Amino acid sequence: MKGTTTSVVDRLVSQRAWISIVLGLFVGAKSSNAFIFDFATGGPWVRVSDDLSLIAWIVWFAIVLLFALFGSGLLRSAAVRQRLNDESTMAHWQEAIRTGFWAMMAGGVLCVIASYETALTARGAVQVMVSLGVGITLLRFGQLERLALKG
Amino acid sequence: MDAVGDQVDRMTRRRARIATAMGILFISTQGFRIANDQMTETIMRRPVDYVQFFASTFWLLMLLVFILFGGGLWRSKSVRSMFNDEGTEENRRRSMVAGFWAMMAGSALCYAITFYEPVQAREAIHVIITIGVGATLLRFGALERRALRA
Predict the structure, then answer these.
(1) How far is CA A102 from CA A41, B6, B118, in A?
(2) What distance in Å separates the CA atoms of residue A18 and residue B88, rounded to the nearest whole number?
(3) Of the residues A65, A119, B31, B137, which has the maximum number of CB atoms within 10 A of its CB?
(4) Cα Rg, chain B, nearest whole Å
């Protein structure tokens, strides 16, 4: 029984680390795409309609929220959940969020500089900052979890 | 307690007070500035606007250095290691987590406001960073004071 729980937890931790990295790359790329595209073409910041942009944001938010909920083993037994979210995982979350904090700050500086070069809207700036913050947090969390699994 | 211990204790108490005071001061002054800029629609017309901009940027940088290192940079190595011990590092991490969530809330707020009234990109960034830095400092001050009481 104990062996089964351990193997389930190991599998879930490994999956969570990979999903975190993939999600982090997607969310982070969302902001960098906008930068590269706009600087290369000199076009307006937001090309899609506001409604579409809003829907895309809600979808992204839902995906990250689902990851946060199910990555913590929401539908699993208390024993699995407890082992899935042990002290080291909590420390990894804290460390990842700390990195995300600085990423958001850097994103803010980047947006201020970009606003002198291109027509940057408030929504565009918020999207870049949040994408960078969430993306880098997820990437760092995935990296720390994978390091812990290897170590 | 020895002389170094006394010194570190004094410095830690002062840091906790300064962090809280700086957090309140930063949020209130920057909040006032943002509101004032909105009312007067200031866009860097007068030399004093540039002075204000660079002063705010310098202040922000100093606060970020404070969050990153926690002070004591010019002290001896032994004082610095006692000043920034494991407990302080933990408090700093926790305060940055609070700052991160505060910035997320600030971002959501700015995003929502854009549907009701025009907001400039730099204004939104200013609001988000002010909320983030202010919340981090306030949380750090509260955690340090709680640790000193215990």
Answers:
(1) 29, 33, 27
(2) 32
(3) B137
(4) 18
Task: Kindly state the percentage of chain A with pLDDT values over 90.
Answer: 21
A94 and B123 within 8 Å at the Cβ level: the answer is: no
Q: Fill in the amino acid letter for B33.
A: R
Tokens of A149: 């699994």
Q: Does B110 touch chain A (CB under 8 A)?
A: yes
Residue A63 three-state SS: helix
Number of alpha carbons in the 13 Å side-chain half-sphere of residue B80: 9
pLDDT score at A26: 83
User: What pLDDT is recorded for position A42?
Assistant: 46
Instruction: Decide if B120 and A122 are in contact by the 8 Å CB cutoff.
Output: yes
pTM for the full model?
0.85
The per-residue pLDDT for range B7-20, each reduced to its tens digit, is 888 888 889 999 99
Q: Can you tell me whether residue A70 is helix, strand or coil?
A: helix
Looking at beta carbons, which residues of chain B come within 8 Å of A98?
Answer: 93, 96-97, 100
Least CB–CB distance from B107: residue in A98, A115, A129 = A129
Cross-chain residue pair A133–B111, CB shorter than 8 Å: no
Q: What is the pLDDT of residues A96-123, one digit of tens each?
A: 999 999 999 999 998 988 888 888 888 8
